[in-house]
Write a structure and sequence with these properties.
mainly alpha; 13 helices
Length: 259
């Protein structure tokens, strides 16, 4: 079971189809073993994969059950992971209220478990989700810039504390959207460009897709349509190669606006 989950992680940023098969197999193995914690953890990984391939509604149904099981058995760290995924799924469906409340709970639990990676991810996501970024047709949380920037800065500190360069890139490209939503286009462009450089260096394809999406979007906000189209077309081709549905959707929408 552990080997299957580990292989799923290895394939997540290389081949989504292979990763999904492995996480599905991990769920079946956990059921055969009759271990509720292993089953819940497997479901959490499978739900996170569903988020990445564009099926957040299915992920939410799975994650509500998963969070309840992990909390019932006192698995604080596992519950933090599942709440992170739940927040991501809710964000994809446009439910910022559920997304941020899930991140708040995940942040609390990851501090208790001293899991700096989950903490960094959730802080970075919260900074973006609580800002006006990408909220044209959804209810915004409306946190002030100072709170969003505080979460963004702590996300970077937590990632750096454990030497997680990919996590620093994640915080940078999510922060790019956040800074742009408050009119700080210079900071937004610098963050997206830095995120893309680091994501490529550490060969983190999903975060490269996110960095391209944010960099193209910020260029669009800065009214540099030519540069935005160049970045987004290149990024869209790369995202299609991985199959990251969320970023494919964002870049296609941004390209339509640019044209």
């Amino acid at each position: 079971w552990r080997t299957t989950v580990a292989l799923g992680h290895l394939w997540t940023y290389r081949d989504y189809t292979r990763a999904g098969d492995l996480f599905g197999h991990a769920v079946e193995l956990a059921r055969q073993l009759g271990h509720p914690i292993q089953l819940a953890v497997s479901q959490s990984h499978l739900a996170n994969w569903l988020n990445n391939v564009g099926e957040p509604a299915r992920a939410i149904d799975l994650l509500r059950e998963t969070v309840a099981t992990l909390e019932q058995h006192g698995d604080v760290e596992g519950a933090a992971h599942a709440l992170q995924a739940l927040g991501e799924a809710a964000a994809q469906l446009g439910d910022r209220i559920l997304a941020v409340s899930s991140m708040d709970r995940a942040i609390e639990l990851s501090r208790r478990a001293d899991n700096k990676i989950v903490l960094s991810v959730c802080l970075a996501l919260r900074a973006a989700l609580a800002s006006p970024a990408l909220t044209e047709t959804t209810l915004s949380i409306g946190d002030p810039a100072s709170r969003c920037e505080h979460d963004h800065d702590e996300a970077i500190r937590q990632a750096d504390a454990v030497g997680w360069r990919a996590g620093h890139a994640l915080a940078d490209y999510l922060g790019s959207w956040m800074f742009a939503s408050f009119g700080r286009l210079g900071d937004a462009l610098a963050g997206a460009r830095s995120a893309l450089d680091v994501a490529k260096e550490v060969e983190q394809r999903l975060f490269s897709d996110g960095a391209n999406a944010s960099w193209g979007g910020v260029n669009l906000a800065a009214l540099d349509h030519v540069r935005a189209i160049q970045v987004l077309e290149t990024g869209l081709e790369q995202a299609r190669g991985l199959g990251s549905a969320f970023y494919i959707g964002i870049m296609k929408a941004s390209l339509a606006e640019a044209y």
